[in-house]
Amino acid sequence: MKAYRIHRYGGPECASLDEAPEPELRAHDLLVRIAGVSLNPVDYKTRHGALRVLYRPKLPATLGNDLAGEVIAVGSAVAGFKVGDRVIACSRINDMGSFAEVARIDARCASLAPSSIDLATASALPLAGQTAQQALRDLLHIRPGMHVLITAGAGGVGCLAIQLAKSMGAEVSTTASPRGDALVRAMGADHVIDYTTTDLASLGRTFDAVFDLAGGDALDACFKVARPGSTVISIAGLPTPSAASKALGMGMGIKTLFWLASLGLRRKAAANGVSYHYYFLHPNSSDLSALAAMVDAGTLKIIADRHFPFEQIADAMAYLEAGHAKGKVVVTL
Ligand SMILES: NC(=O)c1ccc[n+]([C@@H]2O[C@H](COP(=O)([O-])OP(=O)(O)OC[C@H]3O[C@@H](n4cnc5c(N)ncnc54)[C@H](OP(=O)(O)O)[C@@H]3O)[C@@H](O)[C@H]2O)c1
Hints:
alpha/beta; 6-stranded parallel β-sheet; single chain; globular; binds NADP nicotinamide-adenine-dinucleotide phosphate; 7-stranded mixed β-sheet; 11 helices; Quinone Oxidoreductase, Chain A, domain 1
């Protein structure tokens, strides 16, 4: 089968679409004939080797976490799925391999696909959707009336996060450039801050909760605009030891490394009277099914910026890596 694999860590030249053996089915797995995959920044970060400290796949390794397709085989310990089911899923970070004609996925990370949209587009939901849903619901505890800031609202996670925060009853502010302004308003954002002209930090202590998808200087500014006592959750800053350990079961050595790496951010947060946490998503069937149901109910829209054919997956990756995607980038098989 064809698969998009990394052969060594580095730039785009380190990955190629080549012949690979089909994956072996484990007891908890589904084997899926892929109809579409969506791309996430974790794909090019993995290719770069930026995540080697977290997990180190044996090379060559097939990239990709998000998938949509038809089940062609079911592992002996799987309940609730059968051959022929249309499914979507996002693998755990250390169990990637969806950029292929056939992929295996732990069934505990899968859900039946929404029936109201095409399968390839549905592949844009799992990773971005669950990240936003879990961070807003479980860490920021968004409740009606809260004013939440979501940075980088026009990207893959941002478009879903704005809609989910609105569905939880929040007032939503987001940062976007003029290129993303119309899109984030269409997603339901109440206020748009043009990050190319406005210094976020100048807004003052405005927000009850902050979900940062941008990292860097934007994250520093988030600490200054969150109300004292509130929480800033980032998925783009430096991981905190508890987040890394919960997601990947890390030992003391790695926990210490992340404790040191995130110390500067935690200090900046503390100096502003707010708490800082990083979040790694936890793929699971029940959260994903709930999101798929929202799509079918018409209460959650998937924004696919561009669809690429599988033969052009390197172009799709370059497009995402340029950092200006509006919504999700999807590859169709
Ligand atoms: N920890 C986890 O579990 C997890 C899960 C998912 C994603 N992530 C991380 O979250 C981040 C976002 O992911 P994504 O999929 O949403 O990325 P993405 O789709 O590539 O985001 C691109 C968008 O971000 C906007 N943007 C870039 N810098 C910005 C800034 N400083 N302020 C406001 N907007 C900005 C761009 O807008 P313009 O082009 O208009 O500037 C573009 O529309 C990535 O770092 C990713 O690795 C982590």
